[in-house]
Amino acid sequence: MMNKKVALSFLLGGGLTVVILQGWPALSERVHEKLSFFATAVKNHDQVGAVAPFSQETGKTIMQESLAHVSAARSLKRRQTLRVLEIGPGMGGVSEMIVSFLEQQHPRYKLDLVEIDRDFATLLKEKFKSNKRIKVYCKDFLDFRARGRYDLVISTLPLNSCTFSAQLVGDIFDKLRACLRADGVFTFVEYVGARHFSRAYYRLKLSDEEYELLQGKAELLAQIIKHNAVSKRVVPLNVPPTWVYTCTFGSTKKPLK
Ligand SMILES: C[S@@+](CC[C@H](N)C(=O)[O-])C[C@H]1O[C@@H](n2cnc3c(N)ncnc32)[C@H](O)[C@@H]1O
Asked: Which residues contact residue 248 at a Cβ distance below 8 angstroms, ignoring those fewer than 6 apart?
């Protein structure tokens, strides 16, 4: 009886050790990525506009919604090439989710990543170097020269950051429209309550004139969502929780309430 107990404890202990040893590199890699992201975010906070990368849950929601609407917009066959653009991929957390969905559902995809931060872009090039379907461009999106139009554009740009003026946000959406096929789909994120929070926060920090400009941006984002969003999903499992808006520039959509 005693021997059985000892054997069982050895078995459980051994199993646990194997799980820990196998899981540790992946876990420590994730922790390392989060810390590196945080360090760049602190150094470059206006441009990065986040303290943590978007969660896997956010990536999943982005892809589920985007692909559902891409398929609805035109009858895509699996053998057709799906052209996807991601703006602001950071360290590539959402990009990995994009790749995993595309490999399954549209294996003939092409994915372009446009990232302004040089360190992030270097990391992305390393991360995806073995995937010939992915190209990384270290560029400001506004200076990016797209070769042909995309079926899907995904943005995790921090549009509510104070350095993103109403003019800049307007220019980004104009450029995005120019990059997209007429029946293309675009998806972007916005932290829950971000517009209300930044209004209250910057009311204390900005001059009246600057504050007016910020109000203009909030109004512009609200209009873009009202006229173009075909779906709006909340992702509670993100720090902080976030909205995922999927949109089309097509004229046939009914605006979301
Ligand atoms: C909120 S972070 C999102 C990062 C990443 N997608 C994730 O999953 O966590 C925003 C990213 O947009 C990038 N970015 C900011 N302005 C940009 C621009 N004009 N063009 C391209 N990338 C930009 C930042 O460097 C940063 O990596």
From this structure: 69, 73, 183, 184, 185, 186, 228, 230
